Amino acid sequence: MAEVVVRTLSVPAGHPVFRGHFPGNPIVPGVMLLEWVTREVAQALDRRPSALRVRETKFFTPLAPLQPATLSFELGATRCAFDIQCDAARIARGILEWDP
After folding, report:
1. What is the DSSP code string of 1-30?
2. pLDDT for the residue 49
3. Which residue among 10, 46, 69, 99 is buried most deeply as judged by most CB within 10 Å?
4. What pLDDT shows up at residue 1?
5. Ranges under pLDDT 50 in the chain
6. 28-36, long-range: CB within 8 Å, 24+ apart, which pairs?
7. Cα torsion angle, 82, 40, 42, 76, sign
8. Structure confidence at residue 47 (pLDDT)
9. The domain 4-12+26-98 is classified under which CATH number: 3.40.605.10, 3.40.1190.20, 3.10.129.10, 3.40.50.720?
């Protein structure tokens, strides 16, 4: 059985991404979460993030500034499922793929 990799993220409230996403009710953009996932998986694979493809993603709950998110994933030969949570709330889940 492959090892489950776990990483954490917390986006500072002053991060520039929150200037337009959304004033008065800031949330971490989904694209920022996906960038984090692809960067962490690529690092674990010793590949470039651009070598990975997002097969599917579903977002469930917004993530606010300063909220700690936990990413977990298990690497397979050509794909991995990932899950992002904040406390007991699921933020997102999905699948990444890559060529062997």
Report:
1. -PPEEEEEE---TT-GGGGSS-TTS----H
2. 97
3. 69
4. 61
5. none
6. 28/62, 28/63, 28/64, 28/65, 28/69, 30/57, 30/59, 30/92, 33/59, 33/63, 33/69, 33/84, 33/91, 33/92, 34/94, 36/7, 36/9, 36/71
7. negative
8. 97
9. 3.10.129.10
- Token digits for 50? 């651009």
Cα dihedral sign, 41-45-46-51: negative
Sole residue written with tokens 């090892």: 3
9-25 burial, b if ≥16 CB within 10 A, otherwise e?
Answer: bebeeeeeebeebeeee
Side chain identity at residue 65, one-letter code = P
> What residues does 4 pair with on adjacent strands?
74
The full set of domain ranges for the chain reads 4-12+26-98
